[in-house]
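Field notebook, page 377. I keep forgetting to write these up properly, so this time I am using the form the group agreed on. The chain and the ligand, nicotinamide-adenine-dinucleotide, are recorded exactly as supplied. Prediction of the bound pose follows.
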Amino acid sequence: MALIVGVLKETFPEERRVAVTPKVFDVLKKLNAEVWVERDAGAEAGFPDADYAAKGAHLASADEVRRNASILLHVRVPLPEGLPGHTSIGFCDPLSNPDLAAKYAAAGATLFSMELVPRISRAQSMDALSSMASIAGYKAVILAAATLPRLFPMMTTAAGTIPPARVLIMGAGVAGLQAIATARRLGAVVSGFDVRAAVKEQIESLGAKFVNINLGGAKTEGEGGYAKALDDEALRLQRQQMSTFMSEQDVVITTAAVPGKRAPILITEEMVQAMAPGSVIVDLAAERGGNCALTRSGETVIAHGVTILGPSNLPATVPYHASQVYARNLVTFLKHLVNKEGQLNIDTTDEITRDSLVSYKGEVVNPKIQALLGVNV
Ligand code: NAD
């Protein structure tokens, strides 16, 4: 039987992305996949039904898509809605929302999490977290520039010279590095900081200044080159030394995160108070608890004259390109799961398949999620 793939219109509030764009039908065709797309699924991202139809998609209602397809591709995985035998692939945030995994297991459906695709070089083209982080980093700077009552670039005019904005990026992973590059392109004077030593060179290669902070010899790197959560003393040292530098910035963008942990608080209320009125903080860690003590996820807070933005789901605000790169990550992942005979083949000896598989054959199979659900392992 051929592979039958379904794409539903996203139902999460304010989600404007779509999991599959017309451009990736070439990959789906090579897999001999038949594709069912819910009407209007791509409309908000800028992909009209006609473009899917031109690529040979069956346009249908959501029920028809669910009934006909055996593999559903999502941006955000919805509840399973009684889909035994189905496979769903998408973002499902299983470490924060393990209940969804349990529901898929109970429904007898298979669930893959795009967040859990391992970040190994073989899986780079499936790394949806990085694709989305890049877009978020870019958009954070655009939001900051639109909110700041000053200009970003230096301008020499007949009415005088305007100095460039000073922008600090804390946390220079994928989102932070893209933020640095974007702020530089807009003409700001940019500085960056990260606890991982390797990042200094990356920050400098983008034309930004690395802020040197002495963390008292704390171990900053954990498993796989990722950041390790700092202890209270190291965080105190970081905040103390960052405080004066931060008060001289017009914009601070924070992206600091530690896998599986609440985001560290890098900015206290006193540090906000020390900034000049009109300054802007964009906290990209808002959904993970926030890097600023005053951040409220999904809201804008004005405190001590400083505007603190805590945007949630920034990639959904750039839905055309976010969908385009996400769809490419997703179909590359699907291709990885399909064997030479064109069938879905869940080979749990493969690292990419095993790590991203959450629910299978009526069980939650991922050990980390089992632990969160209190399932015996
Ligand atoms: P992330 O979103 O988990 O964290 C963002 C950044 O916050 C990280 O750079 C981290 O070091 C930093 N951070 C943590 N605590 C901090 C603190 N107290 N102060 C300042 N910064 C702090 O990370 P990410 O962007 O998803 O990825 C981080 C790194 O992982 C990348 O830069 C890269 O080296 C690696 N990576 C590898 C691959 C691959 O090999 N395929 C893919 C993606 C990312």
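OBSERVATIONS:
- The first helix runs from residue 25 to 30.
- Residues 119, 121, 124, 127, 129-130, 133, 170-176, 193-196, 225-227, 230, 238, 255-259, 264, 266 surround nicotinamide-adenine-dinucleotide (CB under 6 Å).
FOLLOW-UP: compare against the apo run.
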